Structure formats: structure tokens, C-alpha cells
Amino acid sequence: MNIFETLESEVRSYCRSWPAVFETATGSWLRDEHGKEYLDFFAGAGSLNYGHNNPALKEQLLDYLRSDGVTHSLDMSTVAKKRFLEAFHELVLKPRGLDYKIMFPGPTGTNSVEAALKLARKVTGRQLVLSFTNGFHGMTLGALSVTGNSMKRGGAGLPLGNAMPMPYDGYLDGQLPDFLWLDRLLSDSGSGLDHPAAVIVETVQGEGGINAARAEWLRGLADLCQRHEMLLIVDDVQMGCGRTGPFFSFEVAGITPDIVCLSKSIGGYGMPLALTLFRPEMDLWSPGEHNGTFRGNNPAFVTATAALETYWTDDKLEKSTLAKGEHVERVLSEITEAYPDTGMRVKGRGLARGLSFEQSELADQVCREAFDRGLIMETSGPESEVVKVMPPLTISDEELERGLALLADSVRVVAA
């Protein structure tokens, strides 16, 4: 028995899928303690959009540390935070015509969601929040209340209330027009449905199975929220920062959410950082009403700024991501056509793609075969039925081809 099994809790999960002890990482590659290389189609669950140890970001971080720059500062003002705020405003918000206040709630995605839910209830004076089937928003209690996965919800150990799920795009297979039933419930004073404070949604459900909502569905949801005076919260923790092409995943629909949750790759380097964005008139917080000890992660401000200045001064990364995503879709479609008996389907958008299997155990077998061949992939979906393809956005064309070939080999072995 090794030290991990001896001392670490049974709650660990990723290490069970990838039984190696990793030591170094660069770009799209991980290396274990024996020197074996693994191509990364996982990207830190979306936290490493710019790859491992990106040199443009690393140099900025090393310079900052060597200069004795402030590391921990709570919500005090620092030069690192000032530079990040300036870069985020000039390179992200201003070009998109977005007028948001920026809140640093704590270092992870679930912290951003908790702040969003709390603010929505504070602003509206209402409690109920609508969420979606197969949605995932984090592991703290508020975020779990709007999460669909029953196993994760069960871990709370107590009832999760003040939230109600409704069907995500495609969940009812087109049996009802989008939002017809919900619109009727909201319009009927005798329906028994309390007036919701907000709706929280992922434009592409990552953990829920790479389910991508149509642009017209997202526009319909935004219209529904406006007509019924509900706040629209977009959880862009995993799909933001360019994962679907544009910086924000909701840009394709032309909507402007009331609140946006960001984390994971906003830190640029895999450094913990989270933001909650909201309309200025919603900034009703009293000083200290929502805080956290590690909401002032200055090294993350440094790498986040470096990422914005390196990749978001033009649209090169966006175009590259869209082109690579379309190529991945073509290759995955070819794989499904080669093995029709598996019932595979291609899902996703941008560089968040998936292969969905009718028999969920096949997805797990494909990921195990891929690992044996030196490819890191995970499953997602309520039954872990989807093989998830999420490489760094900076992956080269050659590396992408190599990974897709390894995936095709893995599917071939499992399908046989």
C-alpha cells in the first residue's frame, strides 16, 4: 500500500482513473515519476485552457515572486489587483459592451456560485432559484441545491431547498415548445409556483454530459427571465475563458446575463481565482457582508493578467479554438460512423466535445484504454456515459491529431 492509500481519504477520485504519480508538466503534456508522457485531454477540468506551465505566464509569475510582490491581501488594494482589473475591463468587458461590477468571492467556482445565489436573493427579496436537469454548479450547499447529480446532492447530508429543476435544452426531446409549461406556471397565480429570484444555467453542461444549449434556446430563456423579472445567472466557470471559442460562452446567443460566474481558467496558470460579475445597480452588498480569507490571490492576478494580455488582445485564440473544435467534431463523427452498434453520439461546442455511449460502461473502458496509451481523458454525464474531449486551447495541431488517433484506437479496442 502506497502513501496515498495509507494517509489520503477515500474521497479522492481522479487518481483512481489515472493511476500514476505525476511529476512535471508542460504545454499539453504530463510526465510521471518514471518519465512516461501523457497527452492531456483533460486540462485540469477546464482550469488549464492555456496549458501547463505556459512560459508567457510563468515568467510574469516568477518576476513577481522574485520582486517580493504581495502574495496574500484579503480584499486590500494591490498593484497586482489593479493591473488585473484594468486588463479585464479593457480586454474583456469594454470590447463586448458589458457593464459589470467585479467581485472576488473566494478562490473557487463554487464560491462564485454561492455569491451569485446570495446576491440574487438579496436583490429580489425572493428565495426560489430555478436550475436545470444535469446541471453542476459546485460542492458547497447552495451550489449543490441547484446541482442535478443525485450522488453529489446526497453528500450534503441534509435537505437542499429553495431550488427547483426544470428541463435543459433537449431533455424532453422536443415534446413541448421551449419554456411553454414554465411560462404558463409563472403567469398563473394559481399554479403554486413561488416567484423565483433567478435562473442559473450553463450554456454547455460540462459535468452533466457535454450538453450544449442552442443559441435560440438561450435567447428564449433570457426573454423568459426578463418578462417574469427573474435574474439570469450564467455559470461560466468551466466553459468561460475561451473554452467554446469566444471569451464568454454566452456570446454566441447574443444575451447579457445579470450575473456571471467565472473561475478555473480565469487564473490563467491553474492558480485559484474566481470572479462574480453583476450589473452595477445590483451592487447592494454591505462591506464585509460576503468575504473570504483567500479572495486576494495576488499571484493569480499576475498570471490572469498575463493570460489576458497574451491571448485576448485579438481574436486569434478564438478562431483557433473554433477551427480545432470543428475538426474534433469531424473526427468524432467519423468514429461514430465506424461503429454504429455502439450507439455513440457526438456532443458539445468549441473545444468542449464528447462521445456519448448508450452503454455507460463503454465510456469508462475507452478512457482506461486511452490512459494505457498515454492519453488523459475523463467521463462525464449522470451515468458517466460521455467520453470528454477537453484539451488545452493552446494544443498544437499535431498534438491534437495524435490525441484523436489515440482516442480512435481506444474506441476500436472497446468496440471490438
UniProtKB/TrEMBL annotation:
One of its GO terms (biological process) is ectoine biosynthetic process. InterPro entries: Aminotrans_3, Aminotrans_3_PPA_site, Dat, Ectoine_EctB, PyrdxlP-dep_Trfase, PyrdxlP-dep_Trfase_major, PyrdxlP-dep_Trfase_small. GO terms for molecular function: diaminobutyrate-2-oxoglutarate transaminase activity; diaminobutyrate-pyruvate transaminase activity; pyridoxal phosphate binding. Keywords: Aminotransferase, Pyridoxal phosphate, Transferase. It comes from the Bacteria. Pathway: Amine and polyamine biosynthesis; ectoine biosynthesis; L-ectoine from L-aspartate 4-semialdehyde: step 1/3. It holds the Pfam family Aminotran_3. Gene3D superfamilies: Aspartate Aminotransferase, domain 1, Type I PLP-dependent aspartate aminotransferase-like (Major domain). Belongs to the class-III pyridoxal-phosphate-dependent aminotransferase family. This is Diaminobutyrate--2-oxoglutarate transaminase. It comes from Longimycelium tulufanense. The lineage of its organism: Bacteria, Bacillati, Actinomycetota, Actinomycetes, Pseudonocardiales.
